[in-house]
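REQUEST ID: PR-0412
SUBMITTED BY: lab tech R.K.
PRIORITY: routine
TASK: structure prediction, single protein chain
INPUT:
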Amino acid sequence: MRTGMFSLAVGMLLLRLLPELPPTWLLLLMALLALPLLYTRCYPIALVLLGFAWACCNAHWALDQRLAPELDGRTLWLEGRVVGLPATRGSTLRFDLEEVSARLPLPSRLRLSWYEGQPVQAGERWRFAVTLKRSHGLANGFGFDYEAWLTVDRIGATGSIKAGERLQPATGPNAWREAWRTRLLTADACGRNAYLVALVLGDGSGLGAADWKVLQNTGTLHLMVISGSHISLLGGLLYGLVAGLARIGFWPARLPWMPCACAAALAGAWGYGWVAGLEVPALRACVMLSLVLLWRLRFRRQGVWLPVLAALVLVLLIDPPGFWLSFAAVAWLIFGFAGRLGRGRWWLTWVRAQWLMSLGLAPMLIALALPLSFTGALANLLAVPCVELLVVPLALLGSLFLVLPPVGDWLLWCAGAVLEGLMRVLEQLSLWSPAWSPMLPPAWAIAIAAAGAVLCLAPAGVPSRVLGLAMLLPMLWPQPKAPEHGYAEVRVLDVGQGLSVLIRTQSQAWLYDAGPRRGDFDLGEVAVLPTLRGLGIDKLDVMLLSHADNDHAGGAIAVSKGVSVAKVISGEPGRLPARLRAVPCEENEWLIDGVRFSTWQWPRADESNALSCVLRVEALGESLLLTGDLPVAGEAAWLKAQPRPYADWLLAGHHGSRTSSGEAFLRALEPHSALVSRARHNSYGHPHPQVLARFASLGTRVHDTAEEGAMHILLGARQPMRGVRANARFWTEK
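STATUS: complete
OUTPUT:
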């Protein structure tokens, strides 16, 4: 049984490695060929093939739910019901819409945003005018994969609302959860109401960027929204209550206590999951606990690994595209505790559990490009019992007793007071040791580290366990690969409607602009920093901010906080924050590792765009020109100042606006390729059709971050540009 379940799980997990999905006819043929093998000794191979075919078919169904390409960017009237709990950030309201109906076929689930719109509550039915967009996120090869997240959540499209009218008031469970959230937010909980909402209802939208940062730095993200541990805790408490009553003789003798204990735990877990909306983490926890309880009733002699494998297979059958750390965490705990002789003190057991989780999950966290928290084990030693034994029970009891306001309010205040004290400690730990995001190591280093973790955490009788620590080193300290002498590696990052270009030589790294910042959404932190860390860059020799407009310099503070910056140059140093200590752009030239860098600024500039600092990079005769937002008149001045104006690669000025990339300028340069950095469906219409026509008339090929993702060029090699989306996974739009 275990071999079969393991084979089926392996087949479904192989889906994660695919750049493209196989055609459905090939999957059907694969399944037909596998069926006869089920009745032979080769049945594990057959189950791998069947699992792989099922996962691929499920992924096909998920991608088929996406918005049709011809509807991308169109504004349509549609109707639907609001599901989940709407989240408000600033003036923007975001929520999911299901039961969608319109004149044209649309995905069954949409994620919508409404800027300065009317109040919207869960369970209401609305009619909206929506500008729909296909699932699309930033593509840099590093950082959060928004398109994968939308695919796992079965979101077929996103959209921005232009107008709307309410058709029906809130009804059903969603309306009840909305009222519950409102009551929790108005209670006196020592200012930690958003945390109570996250723990009780699974809605973390009320937590700000600073809250998430503290939780990430201390490795306690899993605690502050409803998770498998909370659901398991409630189920365990109910099971223990019935078992305790039976042990002391207060349980009816005619009722077998174990089936009743399992039934109580099952009802409590699924009830808690339903209150939280049965999102993927809660559903996964409920499934796993259900199988553990079934194993406890009927299959205890089959071994403790059976319910874990069964839960993994069942969840993968429901949702193959996803992969979760919770199964790995449970597996490490079983590996660390099962089969050990003797029973140690409870506090040593608790410390060992944190050690198992921290060391065992480290290779997987790094492989998934997630940060490591050095204070995570210490923080969880305090936070896990505090949250799960005090805060969650108090919050749930307080919620149940809201019908008796004095009792319910007092219980919620107690939960908030405990949270207040805990968060103060976590905030200090976060300041003391922020999370660390290492360079993404090669696959062989992660495999060796995983084997090292197994060796370290093996039973005491296993020889040479200390060698496991040495096996972790290649993963923790990979060697970044820099270009050879004379070459320059250029990456035009995908930062939406903004600009950021990373330039690396053999010994130095320069950053030209740092992307935009819009409220809490900072592209410097979301896109630029993950790329720098993923490439192993912890120091910028120069950060050159062309000018001070937000779309070019908004992310500069986040970048300067995340990595060391030796020097900041800008066309508008006076408009930048004082902490950047920017110096003015001057006409200058450097020869670094055989690569020539030169800067220039228009002396007669009288406004922000015209003050853009121009950077030219030349490696082995191949050149790249970056002009920021320099207008046509500034381009003409640059031409006059250059004895031999030419460029092989040109970054289109002002994101492709018609105010830049003038015809005379392009004819003088004759670039073979132009690079455009912009957001898809941006409100400015970039790149402008006139600019595209100018490039077309010269035979210049245009590359676009909105279509190709981040663009990689090895300057000096005279090779074609490579876009991230060309080599992305199957869920990434190409």
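NOTES: Residues 148 and 683 are 25 Å apart (CA to CA).
REVIEWED BY: pending
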